[in-house]
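Changelog-linked ticket: iron/sulfur cluster example.
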Amino acid sequence: MADLSVIYSNHYTMNLELMDPALEPVAEKVVSGVRLSREDALLLYRSHDLLGIGQLATMVRERLYGKKTFYVYNQHLNYTNVCINRCLFCAYSKDKGENGAFTLSVEEVIERIRKRESEPIREVHIVGGLNPDLPFSYYLDLIRTVKTLRPEATIKAFTAVEIDHMSHISGLGLKDVFTALKEAGLCMMPGGGAEVLSERIHRKLYPRKIGPERWMEVIRTAHESGIPTNATMLYGHIETLEERVEHLLKLRSLQDETGGIQAFIPLAFHSKNTRLPQLPPTVAMDDLKTIAISRLILDNIPHIKAYWVMITPALAQVAMAFGADDLDGTIVEEKITHMAGATTPRGLSRDEIKNLIFSCGYEPVERDAFYEPIGQSEDS
Ligand code: V47
Ligand code: SF4
């Protein structure tokens, strides 16, 4: 992984036009590559100078990647929506036996993967709920099956929540769970399940699921076991700005320890079909500020992803000028956000993603799961 501290302090600057003079001390730090504090993050969040904040994030983004924006040709696979946790913000999960509950058999997994056999998929993103009927061997078979059918793709699977569950059902410690999953073909983990790393939010919104300390322990152990991960933050519900900033600082400290987080993905809350239906959607100002502030605070996490599924492809385009350097991927079968009312497409073609990036003056770079650029074939 590149030494971000060197890149952060390389003196690439641009002409800043700040409308809010309160941002000037923060801007000086960004220009000279000094790490931002909790107070700086709150000051940025409370400022209405969206374009000023965007310029600061752009300065950092361009030091790191110039005009490059990454995307991946990927496939999402959700193996079950049965979940014992039933988090209040989740529209995806069902109880066992409830109308609409599903669990894929190995044969059905084979069918899903075979259906897209002719496509140049580089990453298969696999997550699901906690279905108490599935033994640990199911998870190993799942990974082995996908790896056999798609040997050239990276298997990015299971959040810290699923890994903790596997440790319980198998009686194995986290390290042994990771050893078995790695042997089966797991290479990387997505960043879900972090929600907001706050005990207050944990108690109120996801009391049955693992809390902040255990999430960080699982992620730390993944990194120690040679499995890089992403990290997310679910924002736009009942959290305070202070809790968001605390979340970012916790991730930054964890990353100082392990260096294993590849990308940070802010996830905009969608309330339809959840147990928080009264909450309004996030607004563009907040989505963009959150992306920009993440870029500025997370000086040791290489990539900031604008997840177009949640914020729309149009806003993901704007996010490239607010610090985002990655638009995730083609996806095709997204379920979690669409069940919560997302009106975005379920997938994009490679040409559509390339065009989103190119038409804003950025340079599309197709990547693999580890952000290595890949040569492109013509089929998309
Ligand atoms: O953990 C659940 C969130 C996550 C809702 O690592 C919701 O590359 C919005 O983690 N509204 C799963 N969000 C998705 C996820 C992810 C997505 C894309 C890329 C990567 C990556 C990771 O979705 C869950 C939860 O935090 N979520 N319900 C909802 N109603
Ligand atoms: Fe289960 Fe994940 Fe939904 Fe929570 S967010 S109910 S853990 S599927």
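Closing comment: Example verified and attached. The first helix runs from residue 4 to 9. Residues 2-65 form one domain.
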